[in-house]
Design goal:
By secondary structure, the chain is mostly helical. The chain is 53% helix and 5% strand. The strands form 2 sheets. The chain has a 4-stranded mixed beta sheet. The two termini are 35 Å apart.
Length: 371
C-alpha cells in the first residue's frame, strides 16, 4: 500500500502556507534536500534521496504546532499568554477532533476522514505535550480516547501491515507517553509488543548495526534511528528494564558513528546497503537526534546538533520552508518538540529561547483569525 500522510493544515491559502517555517512549520516535497555548501564533505557521501516516498497527500496542522511552541518554550508574558495557548489548542480540537463513545481521532480534514498512522501518532503526541502543560482530567480523557481510537483504526499489532519502522516507533512513543501521563499502564504492553516486533525485523549487524527504515531493507535511516532510541529509552523507564536502555544506547551510538558529523553537528539522512552515506539534512532528523542525546545524557552531541540547526538550517533564524504538499510538512514541529525539551531539561533558555520566540511569533502572525 502507498504510505499516505494525512496531515492537514488549518491555514489553506498560499500566503499562509509560505510562512511554514517557525515554531509550527509544515513542509513538503521529497524527504531530502542538498546539504549546505559550507558543510565539510563526508566520506562516501552521495547527496541524493533515499528510497522514494509515495504520498498522495501531505498537510499539517498549523494551529497545533503553534501551540507546541507555546507549551514548551518559557516564552515571556509580553510575547504570549497561557490564554493564547489554550485558545489555539481549543480551536484546533474544535476543528479536527472527533469522538465516538470512548474512541477519539483527529480528522484528515475539517469535513471528515481520519489522519493516517504516523500522522495520528504525532498529533497524539501534541496532545500529550498539551497535557504536560495544563494537566487536567479532561485532557487525560482525551489522550485515553485517542489511544483507544488509534487501536480501533490500526489494530494493536502494527507490524503486521505497516512496513515502515519509523511509523511503528512514533506510535510506540505516543502510547508510552500517553500511558505515563494518564496512569493507564495497559498501553505499555501494546507499545512493548510493537517495539519488540519492529526491532526484530529492523535490526541486524549489517553496516555495524542500526535499524532499516522499511521492510525492504534498502537503507538504514536517521528517520527511524532517533525515534527508536527515544522509544527504547521510554520503555526502559516505564518497564524498569535495562534491556531497552541497552538497545537505546546501541542504536544511538551507531547513528552517531555512521550518520552524525561530529565536526558540524549535521545528521545525514541514511546509509545504503552499499555503504554509501546519503545526504539530505532535515529538521526531523536533527530533532530526534537531539531528543535521543538529551535522554541519554549526551549533551555535547545535543548542543552541537542544536547549534547546527539554528545556524545552518534557518533563514533569518526561521526554520526551513518545506511547503505543504509532501511528507516533510511536520518535520519542523518534530524538531521543536525534542529541541525545546532539551532546552528546558538542560536550562538553556538564555541561549535558545529568543530563537523559539521568533519562530513562534512568525507562526502566530499567520494564524487564521476566524478559527
Amino acid at each position: 500500500m502507498n504510505r499516505v500522510n494525512h496531515f492537514r493544515i488549518a491555514a489553506n491559502t498560499s500566503e499562509r502556507g509560505r510562512f511554514l517555517a517557525g515554531a509550527c512549520s509544515v513542509g513538503g516535497g521529497q524527504k531530502c534536500f542538498s546539504a549546505p555548501a559550507s558543510l565539510p564533505p563526508a566520506a562516501n557521501r552521495d547527496d541524493s534521496c533515499s528510497e522514494s516516498f509515495q504520498f498522495t497527500r501531505c498537510k499539517f496542522f498549523l494551529v497545533r504546532l503553534v501551540c507546541l511552541g507555546l507549551l514548551f518554550a518559557h516564552l515571556s508574558a509580553s510575547a504570549f499568554t497561557a490564554r493564547d495557548a489554550s485558545s489555539i489548542a481549543s480551536s484546533f480540537n474544535n476543528a479536527f477532533y472527533s469522538l465516538n463513545g470512548t474512541n477519539g481521532f483527529f480528522k484528515d480534514t475539517q469535513t471528515g476522514g481520519e489522519s493516517y498512522f504516523w500522522g495520528q501518532a504525532n498529533i497524539i503526541e501534541c496532545v500529550n505535550d498539551a497535557y504536560e502543560w495544563r494537566t487536567n482530567v479532561a485532557a487525560a480523557n482525551t489522550i485515553t480516547n485517542l489511544l483507544n481510537g488509534f487501536i480501533i483504526q490500526n489494530g494493536n499489532a502494527w507490524t503486521l501491515w505497516n512496513i515502515y519502522n519509523d511509523d511503528i516507533m512514533w506510535a510506540v512513543i505516543a502510547f508510552v507517553r500517553g500511558g505515563q501521563l494518564t496512569g493507564q499502564t495497559n498501553y505499555y504492553a501494546i507499545a512493548k509488543a510493537n517495539f519488540d516486533a519492529c526491532y526484530a525485523r529492523a535490526y541486524d549487524t549489517n553496516l555495524g548495526g542500526g535499524l532499516y527504515w522499511s521492510t525492504g531493507n534498502f537503507s538504514k535511516n536517521a528517520a527511524v534511528e532517533g525515534p527508536a532510541v527515544i522509544a527504547a529509552y521510554l520503555l526502559s523507564q516505564v518497564l524498569n528494564d535495562t534491556n531497552y536502555y541497552n538497545k537505546a544506547t546501541n542504536i544511538y551510538f551507531w547513528e552517531r558513528k555512521v550518520l552524525f558529523n561530529t565536526n558540524s553537528g549535521a545528521i545525514y539522512d541514511n546509509i545504503g546497503t552499499n555503504g554509501v552515506v546519503n545526504g539530505g539534512l532535515l529538521t526531523y532528523n536533527q530533532g530526534t537526534f537531539i531528543g535521543a542525546a538529551n535522554y541519554l545524557g549526551q549533551t555535547n552531541d545535543a548542543r552541537l546538533a542544536a547549534n547546527f540547526t539554528m545556524m545552518n538550517l534557518t533563514s533569518g533564524g526561521i526554520l526551513p520552508q518545506y511547503g505543504i504538499a509532501g511528507n516533510n510538512s511536520g518535520f519542523n514541529a518534530i524538531f521543536q518538540r525534542w529541541m525545546t525539551r532539551y532546552m528546558k531539561n538542560r536550562n538553556l533558555e538564555s541561549i535558545y529561547e529568543p530563537w523559539f520566540q521568533r519562530n513562534a511569533t512568525a507562526a502566530w502572525n499567520l494564524r487564521r483569525a476566524p478559527d
